[in-house]
Design a protein that fits this description.
The complex is a heterodimer of chains A (188) and B (154).
Chain A: H1 30-47, E1 65-66, E2 70-71, E3 76-80, E4 84-87, E5 90-94, H2 108-127, H3 133-138, E6 141-146, H4 152-164, E7 169-176
Parallel strand pairs in A: 1-7, 3-6, 6-7
Antiparallel strand pairs in A: 3-4, 4-5
Chain B: E1 3-4, E2 19-20, H1 22-39, E3 46-51, E4 77-81, E5 86-90, E6 93-98, H2 103-110, E7 120-125, H3 131-143, E8 148-151
Parallel strand pairs in B: 4-7, 7-8
Antiparallel strand pairs in B: 1-2, 4-5, 5-6
Helix pairs in contact in B: 2-3
The chains are: A alpha/beta (188), B alpha/beta (154).
Chain lengths: 188, 154
């Protein structure tokens, strides 16, 4: 089969009329367009999650990777970045103030925020007459998202504060990794 | 605007072809795409669970990694994570030490020494250890089907 040099025209659907000016209209291939739309809809439907976005990660937090993970639940959330500690989206303390090598673990502003949140939750549960054990257990859960490069010191201090304020069941937010060795890979 | 999807029936037979209105069809697809794009979650975040203590009320005074002088009846393993690596103690005796990168394989090979899944494991981490290394060890313990993991208890 002979090979021909391609035409100068990029898209054959954009036709030139003799020596007149180039037309501004292009014909649309409806079949291709509907196919493309259908593929997009199928792809997006597959990626759709009814849970929605449980945690919105601020910049400055890079989560660690892990293989054996579970589904994150919608409970209270503490985030620890290089710069600050936030609870439910509100900044409560500066990280560097507590990265001091000391054993004292109390982060008073975090404790205050946790206590207030817990009291509100308990009041709501009481008002709704919630006696469901699962709902009661939810009062003790908390999500902790910390930057993977942070020293454990600051995570320990936050853990101590959240358990002191009555949240003993915590979940660390992680990125799911494949079964390869990359989950245990340290800083390159 | 409509599109005929083929010839109509022949010989008096009723046609099985339907006429499709392309404009509402494309509108519907566009709305679907917009909705799905706006509600899509592009970053998948999962969790690793642990507890601070069995009672749920006590808190940790400190999690400084010290030596384990004697066996503790309230736990099957003490897993200590230091900057130099990981040590696993059972009844006060060190049964293994390895690097964080080897945690997955080593803990998997040690799991026959305890009853899975009811075994209680206490994970203690030194302050200077990077958080991702702590998660790597927690991941290895979870991989060995250990579910009762307490973090930071002395």
């Amino acid at each position: 089969m002979p090979i021909y040099a391609p035409n100068k025209r990029i898209n054959p659907t954009i036709k030139r009329r003799g020596h007149t000016r180039k037309t501004v209209f292009a014909s649309l291939f409806l079949t291709s367009m509907v196919d493309m739309f259908a593929i997009l809809v199928i792809f997006l439907l597959q990626a759709f999650s009814s849970e929605g976005e449980i945690i919105v990660l601020p910049s400055g937090i890079e989560l660690p990777k892990a293989i054996n993970t579970g589904t994150l639940e919608r409970v209270a959330s503490v985030m620890i970045s290089k710069d600050e500690i936030t609870f439910e989206g509100k900044s409560v303390a500066k990280t560097k103030d507590y990265l001091n090598g000391k054993q004292e673990w109390e982060i008073r502003p975090l404790q205050d925020a946790l206590r207030e949140f817990k009291q509100n939750l308990e009041a709501q549960a009481l008002a709704n007459r919630e006696v469901d054990p699962a709902a009661a257990m939810d009062l003790q859960k908390i999500n902790i998202s910390a930057d993977r490069r942070l020293p454990y010191e600051i995570v320990r201090k936050v853990l101590n504060n959240v358990s002191y304020e009555g949240f003993p069941a915590f979940s660390f937010a992680v990125f799911p990794a494949s079964k390869k060795k990359d989950a245990t890979k340290t800083e390159e | 605007m409509g599109v005929d999807l083929g010839p109509q029936g022949q010989g008096g037979k009723r046609s099985v072809d339907a006429e499709l209105n392309l404009i509402p069809f494309i509108d519907l697809l566009s709305v679907c795409i917009l909705f799905l794009l706006m509600t899509a979650v592009w970053v998948q975040i999962s969790k690793m669970s642990a507890f601070s203590s069995a009672s749920g009320n006590t808190y940790v005074e400190n999690s400084e990694v010290g030596s384990v002088n004697q066996g503790r009846e309230d736990r099957d393993w003490d897993v200590l994570v230091r900057g130099a690596g990981v040590e696993v103690f059972q009844n006060g005796q060190r049964i293994s030490n390895f690097k964080v990168e080897e945690a997955m394989d080593k803990i998997d090979s040690l799991k026959s020494k305890i009853k899975i899944p009811e075994a209680k494991v206490v994970l203690r981490v030194a302050d200077e250890v990077a958080f991702e290394n702590m998660i790597a060890v927690l991941d290895a313990l979870t991989n060995a089907k250990i579910v009762n993991i307490t973090v930071g208890e002395i």
